[in-house]
Design a protein that fits this description.
Elements (H helix, E strand, L loop, with lengths): L1 H10 L8 H11 L23 H18 L3 H7 L4 H9 L18 H13 L7 H15 L2 H13 L4 E4 L15 E5 L2 E12 L6 E7 L8 E7 L5 E3 L13 E12 L3 E2 L5 H37 L1 E2 L2 E2 L4 H29 L5 H27 L10 H9 L8 H14 L1
Parallel strand pairs: 1-4
Antiparallel strand pairs: 2-3, 3-7, 4-5, 5-8, 6-7, 9-10
Length: 426
């Protein structure tokens, strides 16, 4: 009976039945379904980590099945096309997998940041880092939720959660990368409108997304002169550059976003005039957690594949895994992933609780997890030898997709700056 209940709950997991999770939590807990960690065969087994609850377990199981059925079979085509089909976005919305942090009243499931880490970790574990769901769901939508007007929330959030609207964020410029205070795109007031001019670079989802959250300069130099606007794709004067040719994340289009006398109403402003920098800094912590989650999921999958490979591969009359040097290397990588996982979960938990330490912990998690997990994948490729360099083996794709995580959401050099300032100002 217990197995039947869980199976039915998982199969029914969609955008409407996500709300059932909270209602069934107590019933599931009362049946003592969560196994003890000592009963698990792997650290990635569902139900083995104390920081998660039954809601997270049900979500992880549903995400795994959705990705396996709907995304994995089509991923090679997504890579060739340079973008994910809108059909997948719609199916993800129908299954309650978009806008996880968005409350039910605006069409979302009302999950926490730990739920978002589950989603991103599972995407990366399945080798699907280029889907683009994280930027849409866990960066752009929370900006609208926390700083948008009620009218803006009603207009955009339900459609974004259903997959009918895809959202992107445009911060980076050719001359302003990690230094957001250097934004040069201008927004000049003209009556009840603002006229935007400038360009943004490296915009994930550029040209394919329906609405863009754009950081502009409405005042003088520095942080206090930055304001955020929502701009829809079909707005006159908004155009896009050619699709960038990238090392990784090839299923997500990346283009320049160009604004030439783009007129937007003042009602499209997110937050207050001149508060864009503060808004950006407050919302970027969730993005750092999600990027770290992607690194963790990808590295975990790569390690598991490497363990199997070294056990099967024979050299000098024995399995590669029989060499003590290889065994020690595998042990070190497993330890790295375990410690990275704990730091990531701590940062996500602190962010959920809105603790003052959350920002620096998110920077620590982003720095440590993305750096260490990339090294894990690099070591895994080395253990594959020449085969690791072939596209027949997924380890090379994990390597190229994970590399950009050390750059996204603020480079890891910026993370070191954030952490050091916190230490020196304590």
């Amino acid at each position: 009976k217990i197995a039947t209940h869980i199976s039915q709950a998982t199969m029914a997991f969609n955008r409407h039945s996500v709300r059932l999770l909270c209602a069934t939590r107590q019933a599931v807990r009362s049946m003592s379904l969560r196994p003890e960690p000592c009963m698990a065969n792997s650290m990635v087994d569902i139900g083995t980590r104390r920081i998660f609850n039954e809601d997270h377990d049900l979500m992880r199981d549903a995400v795994r099945k959705f990705l396996a059925n709907e995304a994995v079979p089509n991923n090679d085509q997504y890579e060739k096309d340079g973008q994910v089909s809108r059909e997948l976005w719609k199916k993800a919305g129908d299954n309650g997998l978009l806008g996880i942090p968005i409350p039910e009243e605006y069409g979302g499931p009302g999950g926490d940041y730990l739920s978002a880490t589950v989603m991103q970790e599972e995407q990366a574990y399945a080798n699907l880092m280029g889907l683009g769901f994280a930027i849409h769901s866990d960066i752009v939508l929370p900006y609208i939720l926390h700083y948008g007007t009620e009218e803006q929330k009603q207009k955009y959030l339900p459609g974004c959660c259903s997959g009918d609207i895809v959202a992107a964020i445009a911060m980076t410029e050719p001359g302003a990368g990690s230094d957001l205070q250097g934004v040069g795109t201008t927004a000049v007031q003209d009556g009840d409108d603002y006229i935007l001019n400038g360009s943004k670079a490296f915009i994930s989802g550029g040209g394919e997304s329906d609405v863009y959250l754009i950081m502009t300069r409405t005042g003088g130099a520095g942080a206090k002169g930055i304001t955020c606007f929502l701009v829809e794709k079909d707005t006159p004067g908004l155009s896009f550059g050619a699709k960038e040719r990238k090392l990784g994340w090839n299923s997500q289009p990346t283009r320049m976003v160009i604004m030439e006398d783009v007129r937007v109403p003042a009602s499209n402003m997110i937050g207050e005039l001149g508060k864009g920098f503060n808004i950006a800094m407050a919302g970027i912590n969730g993005g750092r957690i999600n990027i770290a989650s992607c690194s963790l999921g990808g590295a975990q999958a790569t390690l598991e594949q490497t363990v199997t490979y070294t056990q099967d591969r024979k050299q000098f009359g024995q399995a590669v895994a029989d060499n003590q040097a290889v065994q020690f290397r595998l042990a070190e990588m497993a330890t790295t992933l375990t410690s990275s996982r704990q730091l990531l979960r701590l940062a996500a938990s602190e962010l959920d609780q809105k603790n003052k330490s959350a920002a620096v912990l998110c920077a620590m998690a982003k720095l440590e997890v993305t750096d260490r997990c990339f090294h894990v994948v690099n070591d895994c490729l080395q253990l594959h030898g020449g085969y690791g360099y072939l596209k027949d083996y997924k380890v090379q794709q994990y390597l190229r997709d994970l590399r950009v995580h050390q750059i996204l959401e603020g480079s890891n050099e910026v993370m070191r700056m954030i952490i050091s300032r916190d230490i020196l100002n304590a």
